[in-house]
Design brief:
By secondary structure, this protein is an alpha/beta fold. The chain is about 30% helix and about 15% strand. The protein has 14 helices and 14 strands. Helix 1 runs antiparallel to helix 12. The chain is globular, with a radius of gyration of 23 Å. Keywords: Oxidoreductase. Belongs to the Gfo/Idh/MocA family. One of its GO terms (molecular function) is oxidoreductase activity. This is Gfo/Idh/MocA-like oxidoreductase N-terminal domain-containing protein.
């Protein structure tokens, strides 16, 4: 097992959490992969931590995946050490609806700090959204609002930070988060180009700190259902392999904050976003194809501005690629082979002549799967090789907050790292690395998704180096 840099000393009573953590992982359908010398540990220490366990999840966490490459440097000093204490930077619409509530509603998670530069807004969020929440059955820390990053990062007992600002600010914020010794969960896209994404990932690797990335659709119940339909046990309706993956979007794909005033939406300003809506919307589909089938290789494509004279960024992207070999991803061995499958994706964000559409299709020699691409709960249709509908998996449960499942898994992963480090300080306690849920999203998959996007945008922007947004003034209309 990789030796983890030890956290600051925690109370010895935390060791009882190791035993209960094994129970917690069973409640989540984790394998019993933590070898704890269980009998001796239970005899020696009472079970007194991890009150309020979560209900069993519907996901299968039995596969391993790329592990977080680093450990945490903790600022914990007592309190309830069965929780991860989070802080949030940025309180935009995504936080308000999709992700923010998960940090104070999930089990073993607290939201203790929030930061927004607008005077009073962070404290208002803390009081009205977090501190007024009555769903917790245990004593929790009060959330505090901050208006500058320096004070926010000094908040006592904070373990990890969720960066949910515009991509153009991610690099500088992540530098300071890492310098403060905190783990990080950063919104997608992680950087405005692949080079910037690689720098952010490298910062946390060198600091010895975990970095998670917010490709939340991996953790949807529906995505896990698709993964099971691709199982290499002879049951897949596609047959023994994936032969083609296709995706077409006509419309904005649910992108937020796209109208309502005369100001250009920030998602269409490359200095803030890194490009057009392909950066905000397209990256999810590319990451999901990568997760389900494997990495995209042999990428070719084009980007154009066809129908948007009021903006400079592209509004149309088309790419072709193939699925490449997977390395270091044991979960892929349990799925039907997709290596060599052809990939074709089209995003038409501003077509005046077509009805809105959104369809992801996976094909094999025996049949196909068809579904809405940008939905957490829409049905999955299963067809035979002649195009006849065989069956339809009905709508899945709509998550209360769409990022909640991934954030819960990240929180439990951080908690596991803490317990491993504490256990290593005590003789006779043997702790092996538990098998991570394979849908956890790290820096490596974020880099792969961004490299695909950069390849198809390269010509449009005459390069995708760091700072291209400052020299690029847009295509002539």
């Amino acid at each position: 097992m990789t030796k983890l840099r030890l956290w600051k000393q925690l109370p010895s009573t935390l060791l009882c959490g190791l035993a209960t953590f094994q129970l917690l992982t069973k409640a989540h359908s984790f394998p019993s992969a933590i070898s704890l010398s269980r009998r001796n540990l239970l005899l020696k220490y009472p079970i007194a931590i991890f009150t309020g366990m979560t209900q069993p999840t519907k996901y299968d966490f039995s596969e391993g995946s790329t592990s977080a490459k680093a450990s945490l440097s903790s600022k914990l000093t007592g309190a309830d050490d069965s929780d991860i204490r989070w802080g949030i930077v940025g309180l935009g619409d995504v936080v308000q609806k999709k992700s923010g509530p998960a940090f104070f509603k999930n089990k073993n998670s607290q939201l203790v700090a929030a930061m927004r530069r607008t005077p009073g807004k962070a404290q208002e969020y803390a009081e009205k959204k977090v501190n007024s929440y009555t769903g917790n059955d245990k004593k929790i820390d009060q959330c505090v609002g901050y208006e500058n990053l320096e004070d926010f990062l000094k908040h006592p007992n904070m373990d990890a930070v969720y960066v949910s600002t515009r991509p153009g600010s991610h690099l500088e914020i992540c530098k300071q988060v890492a310098a403060a010794g905190l783990a990080c969960y950063v919104e997608k896209p992680v950087g405005r180009c692949a080079a910037e994404t690689e720098i952010i990932v490298d910062i946390f690797e060198k600091a010895g700190l975990p970095l998670y990335t917010a490709y939340i659709s991996r953790a949807y119940e529906r995505t896990q259902a698709v993964k099971k339909l691709l199982a290499a046990d002879g049951s897949s309706p596609l047959g023994d392999r994936v032969t083609k993956v296709s995706y077409k979007l006509v419309g904005t794909g649910g992108a937020r904050d796209m109208g309502g005033d005369d100001q250009l939406p920030w998602r269409l300003d490359p200095e803030q976003s890194g490009g057009g809506l392909i950066m905000d919307v397209g990256c999810h589909i590319l990451d999901r194809i990568d997760y389900l089938c494997g990495p995209l290789v042999d990428i070719e494509g084009e980007a154009q501005n066809k129908n948007s004279p009021d903006q400079k960024v592209e509004d149309y992207v088309h790419l072709t690629a193939s699925i490449g070999e997977t390395k270091g991803r044991p979960s892929m061995q349990q799925s039907i082979n997709a290596v060599g499958a052809k990939v074709e994706c089209t995003w038409d964000f501003a077509s005046p002549d077509q009805e809105p559409s959104d369809q992801l299709v996976l094909e094999g020699p025996s049949g196909s799967l068809r579904m809405i691409g940008m939905s957490p709960n829409a049905p999955i249709e299963i067809y035979d090789s002649d195009g006849n509908l065989l069956r339809k998996l009905p709508e899945f449960a709509m998550p209360e907050h769409t990022a909640q499942a991934l954030i819960q898994a990240v929180t439990l992963d951080l908690l596991h790292l803490r317990l491993v480090e504490q256990a290593e300080q005590h003789e006779g306690t043997n702790v092996d690395t538990y098998e991570k849920p394979d849908f956890l999203s790290f820096g490596d998959n974020a880099i792969r998704a961004q490299k695909v996007i950069d390849t198809v945008l390269e010509s449009y922007y005459s390069g995708r180096e760091i700072g291209y947004w400052s020299r690029w003034i847009g295509e002539e209309k």
